[in-house]
């Protein structure tokens, strides 16, 4: 990893370690271009009151996201879900409730302080179908083809190697598995320099991909059925967006070329032996 990338990752780690400690001491934490307490585009206000009330106060206070991925992930009973950059655990705990006792919710985070906070929140919530893992989202410590749904909340923009994140997400998903994340996305017209003028990297702004870059990254990793839908503005030319994609099921992958071949044959354009 380049020195600049290493420095950026450490800056992100320190910022979120401090956020976790602030919550532990009774404060709140939030990602965003403005100070924590004044930016309504980030944090726990993006969840419904019924969701917030059902969780430990510390999990709600530690919410750093720009959306509510569990509301759009369409989680089902018995599924295995992974939250990339799980922070204080709010989305893991909400996911655990949705997948039920026969399902399992995993949280992955690189920050010791956030992991400790998430474990405490899970214990307070009485959640028994959750597991928190230490690691980076560029090298997910889970076997291939084991996860039904990957979610994330305003974290992929913080990665220093987004291509690796997309590739690793694709690897751990089962065939037919789904990606459902909230993230900050930039207008295609904004250069990286212009994005950096609107907020810093650790504040979820400077590292955001454009709509076209996000789509290309997912396509390169192998995803299909990609949808990127902006939900609200977080800075000039920058949006919180819902990102959905699918890892094609094996049967679909096998059938797709066959359908093209049949169409070609029907039109007289296919080869014959």
UniProtKB/TrEMBL annotation:
Its EC number(s): 2.1.1.137
Keyword terms: Methyltransferase, S-adenosyl-L-methionine, Transferase
The reaction(s) this protein catalyses: arsenic triglutathione + 2 [thioredoxin]-dithiol + 2 S-adenosyl-L-methionine + H2O = dimethylarsinous acid + 2 [thioredoxin]-disulfide + 3 glutathione + 2 S-adenosyl-L-homocysteine + 2 H(+); arsenic triglutathione + [thioredoxin]-dithiol + S-adenosyl-L-methionine + 2 H2O = methylarsonous acid + [thioredoxin]-disulfide + 3 glutathione + S-adenosyl-L-homocysteine + H(+); arsenic triglutathione + 3 [thioredoxin]-dithiol + 3 S-adenosyl-L-methionine = trimethylarsine + 3 [thioredoxin]-disulfide + 3 glutathione + 3 S-adenosyl-L-homocysteine + 3 H(+)
Source domain of life: Bacteria
UniProt-recorded Gene Ontology molecular function terms: arsenite methyltransferase activity
InterPro entries with a match to the protein in the record: Arsenite_MeTrfase-like, Methyltranfer_dom, SAM-dependent_MTases_sf
Occurrences of domain Methyltransferase (ranges): 76-221
Enzyme class per UniProt: transferase
Gene Ontology BP terms: methylation
One Pfam family hit: Methyltransf_31
Family of this protein: Belongs to the methyltransferase superfamily. Arsenite methyltransferase family.
Name recorded for this polypeptide: Arsenite methyltransferase
């Amino acid at each position: 990893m380049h020195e600049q990338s290493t420095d950026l990752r450490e800056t992100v780690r320190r910022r979120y370690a401090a956020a976790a400690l602030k919550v532990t001491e009774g404060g709140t934490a939030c990602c965003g271009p403005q100070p924590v307490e004044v930016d309504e585009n980030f944090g726990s206000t993006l969840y419904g009151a019924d969701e917030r009330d059902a969780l430990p106060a510390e999990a709600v206070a530690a919410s750093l996201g720009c959306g509510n991925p569990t509301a759009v992930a369409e989680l089902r009973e018995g599924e295995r879900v992974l939250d990339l950059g799980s922070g204080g655990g709010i989305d893991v705990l909400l996911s655990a409730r949705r997948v039920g006792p026969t399902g399992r919710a995993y949280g992955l985070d690189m920050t010791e302080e956030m992991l400790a906070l998430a474990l405490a929140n899970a214990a307070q919530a009485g959640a028994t179908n959750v597991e928190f893992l230490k690691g980076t989202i560029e090298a997910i410590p889970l076997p291939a083809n084991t996860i039904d749904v990957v979610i994330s909340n305003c974290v992929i923009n913080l990665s220093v190697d987004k291509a690796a994140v997309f590739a690793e997400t694709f690897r751990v998903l089962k065939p037919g598995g789904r990606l459902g994340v909230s993230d900050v996305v930039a207008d295609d017209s904004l250069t990286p320099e212009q994005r950096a003028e609107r907020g810093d990297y650790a504040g979820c702004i400077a590292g955001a991909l454009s709509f076209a870059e996000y789509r290309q990254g997912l396509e390169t990793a192998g995803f299909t059925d990609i949808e990127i839908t902006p939900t609200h503005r977080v800075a000039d030319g920058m949006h919180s967006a819902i990102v959905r994609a699918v890892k094609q099921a094996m049967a679909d992958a096998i059938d797709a070329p066959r359908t093209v071949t049949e169409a070609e044959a029907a039109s007289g354009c296919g080869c014959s032996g």
